[in-house]
Amino acid sequence: MADNIYISYPPPLTPEQEEYLVQTVKNWTIEHALTVRPSTAIVPKDINPNNVLATNAPVTLFPSPFPKACFEQARSLQKVYNELYATIASDEEWLEDILQELIKVDDFLANLWKIHLSVKEEGYVQDLSLGMFRSDYMLHTPGDSPPSLKQVEFNTISSSFGGLAVKVAKLHTHLATYPSVKRPLAYPSHPLFAHSDQTNSPSPSITTIGHPPPNDAVITLTASLAAAHEAYGPSKSRPQLPTCVIFLVQDDERNVFDQYALSSELWNQHKVPSFRLATSKILALTTIPSKDENPNRPLIYTPPSSPATQYEISVVYFRALYAPAEYDAPTSWAARHHIERSAAVKCPSILLHLSGSKKIQQVLTSLPPDTDHLKNFLPHYPESTLNSLRTTFAPQYSLSSPDPNIEPEGVRLALSPDSAANHVLKPQREGGGNNIYRDKIPSYLQSIPTSQWKQYVLMELIHPPTNAKNTVLRSDGQVVGGNVISELGIFGGCLYRSGNGSKKPEILHNSEGGYLLRTKGKDSDEGGVAAGFSSLDSIILYEDA
Amino acid sequence: MADNIYISYPPPLTPEQEEYLVQTVKNWTIEHALTVRPSTAIVPKDINPNNVLATNAPVTLFPSPFPKACFEQARSLQKVYNELYATIASDEEWLEDILQELIKVDDFLANLWKIHLSVKEEGYVQDLSLGMFRSDYMLHTPGDSPPSLKQVEFNTISSSFGGLAVKVAKLHTHLATYPSVKRPLAYPSHPLFAHSDQTNSPSPSITTIGHPPPNDAVITLTASLAAAHEAYGPSKSRPQLPTCVIFLVQDDERNVFDQYALSSELWNQHKVPSFRLATSKILALTTIPSKDENPNRPLIYTPPSSPATQYEISVVYFRALYAPAEYDAPTSWAARHHIERSAAVKCPSILLHLSGSKKIQQVLTSLPPDTDHLKNFLPHYPESTLNSLRTTFAPQYSLSSPDPNIEPEGVRLALSPDSAANHVLKPQREGGGNNIYRDKIPSYLQSIPTSQWKQYVLMELIHPPTNAKNTVLRSDGQVVGGNVISELGIFGGCLYRSGNGSKKPEILHNSEGGYLLRTKGKDSDEGGVAAGFSSLDSIILYEDA
Questions:
Q1: Do residues A434 and A347 share a domain?
Q2: Quick one: B416 and B329 in the same domain?
Q3: Which residue of B has its CA nearest to A33?
Q4: Are residues A102 and A211 in the same domain?
Q5: What percent of chain A is helix, strand and coil (3-state, nearest 5)?
Q6: Which residues of B touch A264 (CB under 8 A)?
Q7: Could you give the ipTM of this predicted complex?
Q8: So where does substrate get bound (chains A, B) (predicted)?
Q9: Distance of residue A33 Cα from the nearest chain B Cα, in angstroms
Q10: Is A92 domain-assigned?
Q11: CA distances in angstroms from B313 to B127, B264, B300, listed in the order given
Q12: Element at B83 (helix H, strand E)
């Protein structure tokens, strides 16, 4: 059924319909700041020397159908996942145990770990951490099975696109309902839209509300930032300073309006001021008083435009410094260390950042008779909840084994052409190298020293619906359509306190709300939203009767 | 005093302050759709073939000081002006009398008049008209006199920038109050901002609220559109059709987001659907049934994207067809005629469009012992109100006289170099030619046949404050500052019914609300918001104690 839904979707457009739809989307996106700064591939630097131009974010013209049961399952698991990762990040011993092998070969993880150890030795002055998470899933539809969710990644740092995703859902809702649900001008009739004539439907058994469900990502994410700001409490400086949130951003960020959606809501709804700080300016514009001056280590921000007006930073929200390539300045690591040792609540702390490593995800998928990590981390949840969560794991296999005499299961599956055909080989190193797919896996492994195999994890391929189609308005205005693959992200926020003599965190705020659908052309196995045919989407839920 | 206020305004910026302020404005404008489509001078067509890019509208970095008493006078007169022009447009005989000479030499006015006569002969089927007005003023500060208002123009068609002006006021308010009124990050301290330390003020006698007053232009304009839609009543078609408002727009409009601010509010607040119709498509996409089919002449719109879903047009809101150059297609005049004869409420009707001619403005300025037109049109207003209105007239003089033996006052003033130095010579022809200033007037008049003199009107020059300064962020991102001249526009809406055997209209809806300040570089005598250094601004009101 998951595939049948796509047979006539999206509905075909006449040239006049496409012109109206595309023109409406072009104007709606600018009117509602569903925008990005254009890349230099779209507008050469000399045409736009002052960087004033904006263009639409790449968006699909239609929402993508998504099974309601899977969406509800993903939502129902989010707060469990939030707590799971807060718990992992609070168990330093476990994390070290899992990551120690990888740290030996991965400079990025090693540097993060070193910062943690250094601050630990000095003594942390902040036991609160904030997670603003996004759990990403694909639909898995092998053979005739009903669709199920498989987790692709759990993001613990810089979970982006919440701001724009809310607007995509509004855009698609506008297109499906203006000027009336019964006869929208932009979309032709189709069973997935509420206005369709059910008696003529090719799939009369499908029920739908005809437009995307509301998307609360901005509300959810902003409320968790506000909660962390509030929990930070009054200024630790003498005399006291006003407090503020810092959005830590890349110097050449193009996705600024996604971030502004959060900072504006933070101000409008919560009256929490926030400022943008580029990573290159961390050490120039923030200071921590010496131990003698103030042992509480408040992180002081001096706005360059108003140096006499200092602020104390309550929360550092990382929208940068998530990938190895960003640590390209001589002071990059010093800047990260500087923030980690401060009193500011970090979103995320180093340990929470590390908890998002692919290696952690792989270890969690191990099932009894191996250690049941899930049960250990979340003992107070009923088995049914943990089982629901387990169904979202795509099987992953290590290529190393604690016992050198036993060939790991992963090695066996990777070297056999038959089983390799259903897997992908992923480097565990963060930001390092490309994935190896299917029949290329055995020969690839044989071309590298076996000592390097432990740097990879073998993951069973997810089988997304094969007939899914959509059409995209790219940021350069080109309209392209075809077969697509989508990834659903669910947003969550979690403020927790670690330490207190327990490995378990004290959860102060745990929330779920909002979603992101990213849809990309099917031809490429890889792809991010930045690639040519990869775009922001929303969902139209359906139920098979 | 009006000049003193500018001595230290706007406050000087350090490079860091300017960088922060400009960057904030660049991002705020895109986030809030204070935007335009860039001209091809900024982005060549081949870089932007699909017309997806947007850029900030040209905006001042600071609001401009404006005397509170003048602003309040302008507001207090708006509803009187609304009624005045509704009354003029309802007095066909008077209009014809005033315009008849001009119609002989001005094809544009002649064609408009011809359409009116033709529809009158056929019989009008709609006695409602809608005015969405903007009365434009400059501050007049001759010598040591206190500042006063002088009307530059009363716009009866396509009064634009209400949508963007609201956003400029919000932008400047944000800059002056974020994160707190006491210490905004974007603006340095200055007596005109509320946070300034009054004891150190160079002008301690000035009182101000520190940021622009709220701007209700979108609310006002949209409410008048909604009132006209409502007054149109139910569909006149059989079977009935859903009704809608049409925004009649230019094919290559760049100021689209100003218009979207109105159409979105019309939908969000009033649930009135509206569609954009380019002038080139009027005859292709709208029809009027034949007399036999339906003598009520409903104007039927067929959306090209959904031809099966027809709408009946309640209101045609002209954001185009105001200037002669726009009537460049063989069918342009036929299209205007087509709309005029329909049952739709026109904003504006032909007679209301004609009432906005410069000639009408000039005639209104005539004072006793000539005919007191004001008193005749507005007999029920107290003399004090009419006098207040009269003070906003800049003296204007005709260069023709009903009595060929008497040299008109205008001719005398224009030919004498001494008096010419205080005047501007304006063509009465709409959209025709440039203004002639000061000492160039006598020689210009002597270079053309005296028979053509009647095509001009001589207007006393307005003396705006000479020290006014501001800084502008242009649409190409360049920041330019210097001496400026500003024009204040006050918005109003008026729905009225003409005919009923009386020359006086029945006023059904009369409202005032919202303002626009347009600020341009002082070097050019001419200029519109499209010119290089001419931009959208807002006001910061002050009172001399």
A1: no
A2: no
A3: B31
A4: yes
A5: 35, 25, 40
A6: 31
A7: 0.95
A8: 259, 518
A9: 5
A10: yes
A11: 15, 17, 6
A12: helix B68-89
